[in-house]
Design goal:
alpha/beta, 702 residues, single chain
């Protein structure tokens, strides 16, 4: 019942749902208290509505934004509360009292100050918005970008301004109880003065010295930096906030390029969700601004996603364009017909090439280059060792429900609970790690419900195992690891600036140069955090892996086997060489399922009942008797390419080769232009060409 209400209201937790319910019930209670009249009841209901409203804004609740769509926005809610307070005063026979007129005058003046306050806050934010936002780009020496206004002035400014009425509300309620107008006058004075001071505090930030330069000057500075830096390889990306992971997976590869890298983004929200990197980043929301950037030295542009805004970069002929994707799998998205617009399509191994040939979507074989998967370098290769002396670990990493209701998209709906129940009940026992896809439940309520049931199963089994004397843990070691996690997290927060007051995007662009020493320390601390995380609980303890940390590849490295669905997760896990199982949720049958999906040819194929899980567990317990070990090694080469040369070496070679093609094309074009300029203009038809000694067709006089 509660979970259904949470889903319908689209709130993130039970606490949010409770706050929303209290706020909605609070206003009828306010009206009732005003009509009775009862000052204590009114004060209690007002406090509840204030606190609930503030909590929902603090959480960024979806419900708050929806209320404004039905004319119950923030300003209306505050106005209703104030009108109900006036009604309360009238019902208390104070309509002829000075405090009553003071309340009306106060709220009129208070709302009169809302307009200039809102206008100033909006104007300052708009004037400080940069046409281009950067990271790791030196703008300080080229343009003057002043400090941002203090964060408390502009962050949720409308909410803060409206909450200044609390002083007047409290003062008027006290006056209603005591019969003295003093408290009301003081409260009214405090509210009006603070509101006026808030407006006055914003005025200095409209001065020219507090505003970044205009767009043309900023764009000129960016182009000057580009001419000096001379980028050669660009990673171009456009998408929603939730798609930022598609970009983040390529950051380390970009850092390891032999050529000078640059990342170009099209949405500010992507920049906000970009992982730390040493690569220069330029976020250019406007298509016209992008076209005006000096990208004349770029020879190769890489695209991680097929989106409409790619056309703004594809129009540039002086560079070669490559689709690299954000995962290699047998899903239809991996053979999108849009890919034919690129000069080349890079795949991990031979499987990607064959996939395009079978799909026949117009991508030519000679335009496909196999480069491996550089991102898979952190995955440790399995050497065929058994999980001797410890409880084997099986990772369940299903993909999300996708954009339609095809039963083959995810195993969560039909097989997820069966898989987890069988793994939990396995004898000899195994440890279960459950790591769902971050999009799980975003489109399908049924998938979200299945995810919550599986989470409950794993957490219940973990509690039962913790009480089982067979699975002894070392409390002291775990406590030490947890203390280490706290220490590392605190240091990471300090290094990444978490908890500190940050300026706006203009100030972030100005101060966005990476500190290489700090960047290296963060990388080291993240590795230490990962190690401490796995030591912070028992090696046999079931676990639901939530959030972005630990990362998927970290889960691969601590697991002995994996159960998943058709997705790039399977292709990536194959790099480990470990046993794996894939669910045939659409019930195609083993032969047809393997025919359609290359990545499962060396997998244990599970039905929705998960009866075949024993085959996977047998391979984990006795690797020597694993019938699919040789098949996995062969499939790894087919899907991901050879181990030597390394993937990053293959990737750099492909970049260099394509850059040479781009340069050859540009040289050829310059040669054509030079020839055209040197060639004499053709004669106009019907016009006689002047002979020697003639000028303008007139014979010279002798």
């Amino acid at each position: 019942m509660i979970s259904t209400a949470i889903r319908v209201a689209r709130v993130g937790s039970v606490a949010e749902l409770a706050a929303a319910a209290l706020m909605m019930l609070g206003f009828p209670c306010l009206m009732l208290a005003a009509l009775v009249p009862s000052v204590p009841a009114f004060a209690a209901a007002a406090a509840v509505t204030y606190l609930a409203d503030h909590y929902l804004h603090h959480k960024g609740s979806y419900l708050v934004s929806r209320l404004s769509k039905v004319r119950a926005g923030l300003s209306i809610r505050f106005l209703i509360r104030q009108l109900l307070l006036v009604l309360l005063l009238a019902r208390l026979d104070l309509a002829e009292d000075l405090v009553f007129y003071g309340a009306i005058a106060c709220f009129i003046v208070f709302y009169g100050l809302q307009a200039p306050h809102g206008a100033l806050a909006t104007l300052i934010s708009n004037r400080r918005r940069m046409p281009v936002v950067t990271r790791n780009v030196d703008l300080v020496s080229r343009v003057r970008i002043p400090d941002a206004p203090p964060r408390f002035l502009l962050d949720r400014s409308a909410e803060k301004m409206l909450h200044l009425d609390i002083a007047a509300v409290v003062g008027l309620l006290v006056s209603a109880v005591t019969g003295s107008a003093v408290a009301g006058a003081v409260g009214i004075g405090v509210t009006v003065v603070l509101a006026a001071l808030y407006v006055a505090a914003l005025l200095p930030y409209l001065r020219g010295t507090r505003i970044p330069p205009k767009a043309d000057k900023v764009l000129g500075a960016i182009s000057a930096w580009l001419r000096e830096y001379r980028p050669q390889t660009v990673l171009y990306f456009s998408g929603s906030k939730d798609s930022a992971y598609q970009l983040n997976m390529w950051l380390e590869t970009m850092e390891r390029l032999d050529s000078r890298p640059l990342i170009i983004l099209r949405e500010r929200v992507i920049l906000e969700n970009l992982a730390p990197s040493t690569v220069p980043v330029i976020c250019v929301p406007g298509g016209v601004h992008l076209m005006n950037l000096d990208l004349s030295t770029v020879r190769v542009t890489l695209y991680a996603a097929n989106v409409g805004k790619n056309i703004h970069m594809l129009r540039v002929p002086t560079m070669k364009h490559v689709f690299i994707g954000h995962g290699d799998s047998d899903k239809l998205a991996s053979v999108n017909p849009f890919s034919k617009v690129y000069d080349e399509v890079w795949t991990a191994g031979r499987a990607g090439r064959d996939r395009y040939a079978i799909a026949d979507v117009g991508v030519r074989d000679e335009d496909i280059v196999e480069v491996g998967r550089p991102q898979l370098a952190p995955i440790r290769t399995w050497q065929g060792e058994a999980a001797a002396g410890r409880c084997p670990t099986v990772l369940y990493a299903p993909t999300w429900e996708g954009w339609d209701d095809s039963p083959g998209n995810t195993s969560l709906l039909l097989a997820g609970e069966n898989i987890v129940k069988k793994l939990i009940a396995a004898d000899p026992p195994v440890r279960v790690l459950y790591k769902p896809h971050p999009f799980t439940g975003t489109r399908s309520a049924k998938a979200g419900a299945a995810h919550r049931r599986i989470t409950a199963l794993v957490e219940k089994a973990a509690a039962e195992r913790a009480a089982d004397p067979r699975f002894k843990a070392d409390p002291a070691a775990q406590a030490g690891a947890k203390a280490e996690l706290v220490r590392i997290a605190a240091r990471l927060d300090a290094l990444s600036g978490a908890g500190s007051v940050r300026g706006d995007e203009a100030e972030a662009a100005r101060d966005g140069l990476v500190d290489l020493r700090r960047h290296e320390e963060i990388a080291r601390l993240r590795a230490e955090w990962d190690d401490a995380y796995w030591r912070s609980f028992g090696t046999a303890e079931h676990r639901v892996i939530k959030g972005t940390e630990p990362r998927l590849y970290d889960c691969f490295n601590v697991s002995d086997a994996m159960v998943s669905d058709i997705s790039s997760v399977v292709s990536d896990f194959i790099a480990s060489g470990k046993p794996y199982a894939v669910t045939d949720s659409a019930e195609l049958g083993v032969d047809e399922f393997k025919r359609q999906n290359t990545a499962v040819r060396a997998a244990v194929i599970l039905s929705n009942g998960a009866a075949e899980l024993d085959e996977l567990l047998d391979a984990v317990r006795d690797p020597a008797a694993d019938p699919l070990a040789a098949d996995r090694a062969e499939l790894k080469r087919y899907l991901l390419g050879p181990d030597e040369p390394t993937s990053i070496e293959q990737f750099n070679t492909a970049v260099a080769n394509l850059a040479r093609k781009a340069e050859a094309r540009n040289v050829g074009q310059r040669s054509h232009v030079a020839l055209d300029e040197a060639r004499p203009a053709p004669a106009v038809p019907g016009q006689r060409v002047a002979a020697a000694g003639e000028a303008d067709g007139v014979t010279a006089a002798g």
